[in-house]
Design goal:
A 9-stranded mixed sheet has the order 1-2-3-4-5-9-8-7-6. The chain has helices spanning 51-55, 157-165; strands spanning 22-24, 44-48, 73-82, 85-93, 99-106, 120-124, 127-134, 137-144, 147-153. By secondary structure, it is mainly beta.
Length: 171
Amino acid sequence: MSTGNPLRRTQRFSFHAPTGATIRTPNTQPKRTTNSKQSGSRPTIDQYHSTSAAQAHVNYTISQPTWLPTGFTLQYAHVLTVDNASTTSQVYANSTGTRIIVMQLPISATRHLTRPTSGANTSVNGYTATYASLGGGSMIHWTCGGFEHTIQAHLRRQPTLRIANATACTG
């Protein structure tokens, strides 16, 4: 079993989409697929090259960090839609392949973001948050402004906490 960091480029990152998911990388506005069922619809994942492109496909303001460590740039933004609820993810990376993932989901959704099952209580912009160390990386999860927020990064606690505090509660 590897104890290395799953967020480094030197190690292969594997994403396993949920069963029945449709994964698309649109160059323009994607064609939306809908499911006539009220619940249990197929998830869709759309990938964009900018947060502003992803913004056009959700009905809330995507929170973006106003501070990142030097050298990190946006690689892509995802919009994952399940049962009419959209989660946004922004993936940032630096030249060494270290990644920072910033996720947001409306609280009204029937599902939740990945969050630490245990960890240390901390504060993000005055809101109670949970911090966990993850094999050389870190995760912070908090709720504010009607949204769940999670940041995962292969960084120490303080830079990850600084990114969280630089992410406004918008919606």
